Amino acid sequence: MRFALSTNWNNGRLNDGAAIADEAEALGFDSLELGFRTQPEQLPGFRSRLDRMPVTSVHAYCPVPIGAPSGHPELYQICSTDPNERALAHMLLEKTFACAADLGAKVVVFHAGYADLTTLFGNLFTTARKLRVKRGRKLLDAFRREFERLRPSLEAKGLTLALENLPRQEGFPALDEAKELMREFEGAPLRLWFDTGHALVRETHLWADESAHVAAELAPWICGMHLNDVKGPEDDHQEPGWGNVDFARLTFLAKRDILRVFEPHRPVAPDDLRNALVHMRRMWG
Known about the structure:
Layout: E1 4-6, H1 17-26, E2 31-34, H2 43-48, E3 55-59, H3 83-103, E4 107-110, E5 113-114, H4 124-157, E6 160-164, E7 171-172, H5 175-184, E8 190-195, H6 196-204, H7 211-218, E9 222-227, H8 251-254, E10 259-262, H9 270-284
Helix pairs in contact: 3-4
C-alpha cells in the first residue's frame, strides 16, 4: 500500500524541493502531495525527483501566490458573493492546475468554502443547523456555476478537482451537499477528499455524523484522503496513532483505489512520522 507525504510538513525547514522529496523518501513514503505552502522556487527541485518521488496530488492554492504573506488554502473563496474574490480564486486555481499538470499530478485538493453563519440568534444549535442548510443551498448554486467555468481546463489537463471535507460547521460541502454534487456531476472531473481529522472534529462538535459513517456514505466518490489525527475538538493535524481517530474503522476506505496522504503539522517529529507510517502499513496492508 502506497502513501504520500504533504510537503507542508517539511518545506518550512528545507528550502530546496529536492531535499524535501529526499527526506520524505528516507522516511519511507512513496510519493508527495505538494502542499499550499510550496514556494515557486521549490518546483524545479521537485521536478528533478519525479522519477523517485512522483507528485500524486497538489493542494490548492499552489504554489504560494506572489505577494501573499504565506500559503493558505482559503485565500479566496470560489463561492464568494464578491465577484473580485471569485475572479482571484479562479486565477489561482488555474495556476494550481498548471502546476499539477506540469508535475504529473492527477488530483487537485480544494477547500470549496464556507457558509456564512454570522447572523445566528435564539437557540444557537437548532438555529445554526437550519441556517447552515439554507445558506448551503446558495453555495451549491454558486459552486455549480463556477465549476462549469473550471471544467474545460480540468478536462484539458487530465485533472480531477477533489473537494475536501472541512472541520467547521460552515464548511462546504456537507454530507448531503457533497452527494448532490457528485450525482449531478457524474462523469465530470469532480470528486471528494476525506480528511480523517476534520471528520472527527465535526463529529465531536455534533456538526456531522460519526466519521466512519460519513466515509461510507461518500466512499463511491472519494479519490483520496488526508491521514490526520486529533484528540480534542480542534484540528490538530498530528500523525496517525497520536489521537482519537479510529483508523481501523476506515480500512474499507483505505483499501480502495485512492490516494493516501499524511498531512502532519510541522512540529511532528520525523521519528514519530516514520513510526506512524509503519503502523498504518501494518494496520491496512
